[in-house]
Amino acid sequence: MPAKASRDSVEGLVDSLLKGDKRSAGKLISLIEDDEPEAVEALARIFPHTGRAHVVGLTGPPGVGKSSLINRLVRAFRSRGKTVGVVAVDPTSPYTGGAVLGDRIRMADTGVDPGVFIRSMATRGHAGGLALATFDAVRVLDAMGSDLVFVETVGAGQSEVEIASRAHTTVVVEMPLTGDVVQTMKAGILEIGDVYVVNKVDLGNEDVLVANLKFQLEARDGWTPPIIRTAALEGRGIDDLAGAIEKHALYLDQSGGRRKREVARARLEILENVQRLLVRRVSEGSRSGRAFQNLAEDVAARRLDPHAAARKLLGSGSTAR
């Protein structure tokens, strides 16, 4: 396919995607990752066909076994007749700008299943650790017909908290013997999880971490996050974890929580797209770009403060600070 798809090919890709074609899904995600103009049209076409998949985010420190857990969870849900998509957000390669693909390699045995689609995406230096295009890719897998879509973060910094604003169910993974009692104290980590996993219990000494989590976790909106003990490489606890995810999905449906999360995510994505469009507009050398340069010179000369310059750029005319 050419680097820039024609209008007809975009329409054809979307039509094939809606029939469950994996190749079309891969091509559409590539358009999104490369920020091609055709990606906007493609996303507009698939959007009415989204909203059916249950999105599960997995986060936690590097090395706790998130990829191995997802590999086992994919098998568990496939055995229950579910189709599954996986988006693994990898650190950006310093050489190619692409994803390192470590997660995809670890999940290779699962990826050959016709009911599974796995894609690695690079962070591209995004401060939060989640690729800006990640959840557009999730929509592609949603429209393809995936019942569940797992999103694995790099597990560093803000991405641990950011995933909670996007996923329906957020799974926080920890492990014993790595100072995790301190890790659980981190700001935000106790507020974002819908399910907590203590993985690698085969290492032993997990009781301290489990007890610490139980002591700190509280019910939120009628849901008390369960703590699941797993040993992913051995397959221990995987059915319990899959059951906890299903139970949370049911809770969201019955409590109205799914609708609230969808609205919150929509607000966030609208604001992100506004920001992206504004940055693109002022950096393309158009009239807005020249106005931006003039404003920057005014701010540098102290003729205008940055807040007033921002309002002027937006054309709001507001004087509120």
How would you characterize this protein structure?
The chain has about 325 residues and is α/β, with parallel strands linked by helices. The protein has three domains: about 1-45, no CATH class; about 50-255, Rossmann fold, CATH 3.40.50; about 265-315, no CATH class. The protein is built from 15 helices and seven strands. It has helices at about 5-15, 20-35, 35-45, 65-80, 100-105, 110, 135-145, 160, 180-185, 190, 205-215, 240-255, 255-280, 285-300, 305-315; strands at about 55-60, 85-90, 115-120, 150, 170-175, 195-200, 225-230. A seven-stranded parallel beta sheet has the order 3-2-4-1-5-6-7, with helices on both faces. Helix 11 (about 205-215) links the parallel strand 6 (about 195-200) and strand 7. Helix 1 packs across helix 2 (about 20-35), helix 1 (about 5-15) packs parallel to helix 3 (about 35-45) and helix 4 (about 65-80) packs across helix 12 (about 240-255). It is globular. The model is unreliable at about 1-5, about 90-105, about 125-130 and about 315-320 (pLDDT under 50).
